[in-house]
Amino acid sequence: MEAQQLTTLTGVIDKKMNRQLKQYMDICARCAICKDACHQYVGTGDFTYLPARRAELIRQIYKKYFDKAGRFVPALYEARDPDENLLDELYESTYACTGCRRCMYYCPFSIDTAWILSVAKAILIAAGRGNEMLGQLADAAIFKGDNAAMFEGVMLSGFEDISEEVRAITGNPEHQVHVNKEGADILYVALAGAHSIRPAAVIFEEAGESWTISMFEAANYGYFYGDAEKARLITKRYIDEAKRLGVKEIVVPECGHAYRVAEIFYEAWSGEPMPFKVSHILEKVDEYIKAGRITVDRDKIDGTVTYHDPCQIGRNGGVFDAPRDIVRAVTSRFVELTPNREQQWCCGGGGGIVAMEEFKDVRLKSGGKKVEQLKASGASVLACPCENCRLQIEELNEVHGLGLEVWQVIDLVVAAMPFKATPEADAATM
Amino acid sequence: MDTYLWITSVAGVYVAGVVFVAGIGWRIYEWATTPKSPVRLGMFPKPATTGGRVAKMLTDTLVAPHAARIEPRMWFFAMMFHVAALAAFVGHLRIVQEYPLLPDLLGAEGMNAFAAWAGGIAGTLMMIAVLYWIGRRTFGPFKNLSVPEDYLLLALLLGVIIMGNHMRFFGHVHAAEYREWFQSLLAFRPHVPDAISNSNVGWSLGTHMLFVNALLIYFPFSKLVHTIGSFAANYARSE
Ligand code: HEM
Ligand code: SF4
Ligand code: SF4
Predict the structure, then answer these.
(1) I need a surface site. Which of A194, A310, B4, B102 has the fewest CB within 10 A?
(2) Is residue A110 located within the same domain as residue A194?
(3) Measured from the CA of B234, which atom of ligand 1 is nearest?
(4) How many angstroms away from the CA of B93 is the closest CA of chain A?
(5) Dihedral pair phi/psi, residue A406, rounded to 5°
(6) Is any ligand 1 atom within 6 A of the Cβ of residue B227?
(7) How many domains does chain A divide into?
């Protein structure tokens, strides 16, 4: 292959090299114990999606250019150049990966295949083969950060509309979505869309929280795209805002990766420690319920309720109990999916895959395990925090005719809260 | 015979020993001098204390409970191999230095009978496990994932084990003679006792050592460095 391109691509590996990655490259036994951990491999039976195979493509380049034995006898490792053939397969296996890290959970050496694939994404981007859709969404988010004033009018009138809805729900004329409130305790970084702001605002206001809304979204397509610099710039938008407003804490919405980005990745991308406490909104809601700052009536919701652990919140974020305690507070008919918590099956919708039409087929097939689990639980209501999980499960729900109601957890909470307002107002929360 | 034994069981052992030790040293140096991942790679639930993390790392590495849950059969054979390999390793220490206590308890005859049984069982279990691994790599996704390195290692292992078992099951040479040979190597005054070279297993010792040397030489440059790396990687899981 062309020398210039080769230097560029191997340069990416060189730059990204670190101790853990090197060990992952050196020690994998190719035992394929990880194979049945991956919902995509299980759902499709396609070798491209076998976790160790995805990593093996990077290992083949590593062996050829970074490993003495591999340079000496490349054939022993099937070491090869990052040529077009390799990049084709790499694109498919890398951007399809939802980053759920279920393979890492079961690997006897805890090899983090998703972390290896973050190098794969960097290589693809350097080769001009980054996923276009994710790249565009990331650039749009950065553009918004650079031109905040341009968007301010629209944002403010949107928040005003949501404030109206909040007042209609709670019946309290003073309730509102706080904007640009200096000295607030909490900066709530929501997702684009009223559904992520309205119920949160209801809860914050009822709890008497000192909070303010961010002008930016917590979603980070730079992270999905695989460009650490873009991802950093997108996160920095609300970090700067939090500094300007002087808040104490950043609260991220139900979205899965937002929490991990703020709590775990930002530090690595920016080289500075995260200057704020980061909480997941469900941790706050759980606190409010336990402290009696908000009240929820049990069993206002019909049917048996189950809970799906989004990978980035559960296994990769460590928030297991808060959402369960919340769900148990609003219903006495709670059942677990099996397996659950850190062994929970990925639904198949993570890692930005729902935004990439080209992966629709594998995405739907990869939901097979989740469908089985949901059916076996006998539940009619699913509490599901992450936006990507919800999009995927709603689609599975339709395709497989599961007849499931899929709810955000904060919507369940709002539906269970007693308000001064009329019962019709409750309907507005749905 | 003498030339063959001199190459494989004297010169070869020295070469393999040097390459193995230097290679492992180099591998650890490479790992140690590469900066840590900037991102904490741990997953949850994570033990809160360093002691807890070390305990979890040791359990994950030595017992592999998660692998047991997802592929019990593979876990069984892998456990069988690794435990038998450990037992075989411990058994081999007898040719460096006879154990204290045990021979006194069992008597010279009893000790040899015990070693024959224990070694025979370990050798057989290892052979079964390696044959299972080879078989597993001949079909489907396991075959597709395998590279020549995997087969080379398994072939070397099989060679080591078969020749070891041959000495164990068909030879009449006991530990004392092997100890004489091995201690002469350690003292850098190598000689192979006539009791070995004139026996029916002289050539099997030579071939056993041929495979052992090849395995040891290749070890630091192969995936077998999981021997050390698995502890570090499993620790990163809790960071
Ligand atoms: C201590 C933690 C260890 C763990 C968790 C571990 C785990 C594994 C696993 C999962 C395999 C894959 C089997 C396959 O090939 O499909 C394997 C293979 C192997 N391990 Fe270990 N191992 C450990 C230590 C060791 C040690 C100390 C040795 C030293 C003799 C060793 C030697 C081997 C060999 C020779 C293989 C076969 C390689 C092959 O399949 O080609 N392992 N090990
Ligand atoms: S389970 Fe781990 S060691 Fe085995 S093939 Fe998969 S990544 Fe490699
Ligand atoms: S992180 Fe998840 S999707 Fe990616 S390879 Fe591992 S199990 Fe499969």
Answers:
(1) B102
(2) no
(3) 5
(4) 27
(5) -105, 120
(6) yes
(7) 3
